[in-house]
Amino acid sequence: MTDENNTKKPTNTDNNWAVGIALILIGGLFLLDTFNIFNISMHNWWAIFILIPGLTMAARGIREYQNTGDMSSRNSGFWGVLMILFAFTLFFGISWNLIFPLGLVGVGLYLLFMR
């Protein structure tokens, strides 16, 4: 018998851990806010809906890189990191005057070292 039927199919369980960790962290932050240990201003609470898919895409990108060794700008990890950064700027009120130059430096480093 050949191994044609034994090919590994991608499962959704690989992404479940990223979503699970994200939900645990978000719930922990809400608890810390409730107990007045860490004050969170949740005026941009909807950024969670940007953060969770970003974490999932970053996890998928890491897995693709581990499997293929290919890291290109089309990689879902790149877009996942961008979504995570965008969500953090909304959560913490970070100025785009800081994010934009850091983004340029990051893209420049990516172009230099990921060949």
Task: Describe this structure as you would to a colleague.
With 115 residues, the chain is mostly helical. The protein has one domain (15-113). The protein is 68% helix and 0% strand. The protein has four helices and no strands. It has helices at residues 13-34, 48-68, 76-92, 96-113. α1 runs antiparallel to α2 and α2 (48-68) runs antiparallel to α3 (76-92). The longest helix has 22 residues, at 13-34. It is flat. The termini are far apart. The mean pLDDT is 76.
**Average pLDDT, all residues:** 76
Largest sheet: none
Radius of gyration: 18 Å
Total discrete domains: 1
**SS elements, strand count:** 0
Number of helices: 4
The helix-strand sequence is HHHH
Question: What brief labels describe this structure?
Answer:
mainly alpha; 115 residues
Quick overview of this protein structure:
The protein is mostly helical.
Topology:
Elements: H1 13-34, H2 48-68, H3 76-92, H4 96-113
Helix pairs in contact: 1-2, 2-3
